[in-house]
Model the fold of this input.
Amino acid sequence: MTGLGFLLHPPLDKLIEIAGSDDLKIRRAAFTYLSKKFDELYDTEYDPSKYEGMPFVPAMKDGKECVGAHEDVRSRRYYIVIFAAEAEHALRSIPIIHGQ
Done:
């Protein structure tokens, strides 16, 4: 299939874009995939500074599920980061802030 031009996995930029979707099911699927495949596929190309201002991290704000940019979720008290139980362990390995 790759000989026909199909990709082995989604590009990181596109996956982060999809993880910021307005559709809850779509963003959960994208973020769960990202967190499960991070170490295997995306670790070496991920640069948090490239995604500043891009909301893609699952969070709660004012009691509602949303997505936040990594710098907001990490530094602002009104965001509470939430993760799917199966993605939580994998997410810990994703450096939310560059250099952490």
Q: What stands out?
A: The mean pLDDT is 76. The CA atoms of residues 11 and 42 lie 9 Å apart. Strands lie at 55-61, 64-69, 79-81. Residues 10-92 form one domain.
